[in-house]
Each structure stands twice: as structure tokens, then as C-alpha cells.
Amino acid sequence: MSDLLNEVDEVHSLTSLTGFEALLRGKKVVCYGQPFYAGWGLTVDLMPPLRRTRTLTLDQLVAGVLIMYPAYLSRQTGRFTTPERAVDELLAWRQERSIFLNIWRRMIGRLFRKD
What we know:
two-stranded antiparallel ribbon, 5 strands
């Protein structure tokens, strides 16, 4: 989807998360439904949510959606944690998996190598 979003000028969406990703990339978003990112003055809304009466900046929407609203759990402790710590843990986990996958690929390569 990332490659596709880089190629388009605008996105038309009913409920898709793709519309939010398009907003993050500075694309025009037309909403036919009422996804969570509609009605804040950032999208063209064909069915605007009546309960949303104020506008938000993109930074405010992102903060609400990714920082203030969700609760993040630590992979290490199983307890609530900050978004920043959750990202750090995910990056460390990806690094660990990358090391494991490289070892696995070498082992498999040796099994199938023709001598």
C-alpha cells in the first residue's frame, strides 16, 4: 500500500485505514463513510459526522489516535507502558528476529548447497 500511496494524488475511502495513511502522506482524502479520521476538517466528507463540531490539525489527530487514546502493553513486562517504550521494544524484537532469520537462512542454505 505504501508504494501505491506514493503514486496517487488522492484516496477515496469508506472505512479503510488507508485514508489515515494517505493523510499522513499529505494526500487528499475523500470519505464516503465515517472512519475515525473523518469530520475533523482534514478530509472531504460526503457524510460528515454530526457529533464532530471542531477541527483538528493532523498532529492533533495523530496524537489522539496513536498516543492519548490507546493503551500499550510492554512485551517484556506485560504491564502498561508508554508508546515510546512500546516502539523501542518492537524495534529490539525486530532486530532479534532479524539475527535469528539470518542464522536460519545460512543453515538452510548449507542443507541445500550442491558441493
